[in-house]
Specification:
The chain is of the alpha/beta class. The chain has helices at about 30-35, 40-60, 70-80, 100-110, 130-140, 165-170, 190-195, 210-215, 220-235, and strands at about 20-30, 60-65, 90-95, 115-120, 145-150, 180-185. It contains 9 helices and 6 strands, in the order βααβαβαβαβαβααα.
Length: about 240
Amino acid sequence: MYPRRPLHTRDAKTMTTKPGLKIGLSGAVPEPEVLRDHGASSADIHLTVRRLVERALAQGDRIVYGSHPTFTPIIEEVASRRFRPDLDPRVMMFVAVRYFSPIDWEDYYQRHARHAHVVPIGDFGTSEDEALRALRDAMVAEFDAMICIGGKLHRDERNAKPGVLEEYERAVKRSPPIPIYLLGGFGGCTREIYEHRQPERVSNGLDAEEIRRLGETSQVWDAVELVFKGLDKIRKA
């Protein structure tokens, strides 16, 4: 049994898009102690995501992400206020089907398809490693730009890499390169990438001082303005 898709959606590769960038969003709320160490809170990350999504959608961009449960309600609330997602889906949400039963999947799919173009990955019997690999490959292939924020630091029982790091590593291998924005001021995996993997950064329209500010600030408005300053330069290049 394969996941059913509503009639108004299309496969990711054939989805018709209007002018604007497909902006990938990778992240999660870090552990509480990590947030405290950086003078930040979960509310700061939630507000930053909201402002990023509002600004992106308002100027004709689209949001692409991996259905993270922390970000989904924020993204869908913003999208549903501004657009008719059934006619013009501005959000592309990739979901690994293996985490659902057939009944749960049908319910989940129909609820979220009201707000986004939902892209099912794998099937109910797909292994976790295969499903996550396929999801990240397909998702990152859609990015025109990438924003990283927060992200868990812990390793799970499989000793897998943090999800943000997995997605970042795929993004830096893209050809041609895509701009990447590391909002490291909220801590988490994004901060570690910012501090330890600087040579892998690709041009993102910001100068060295602006990249430093973006990597270290936990001020919501500063982070959002820097991201879109870089994106605006990229558009004009």
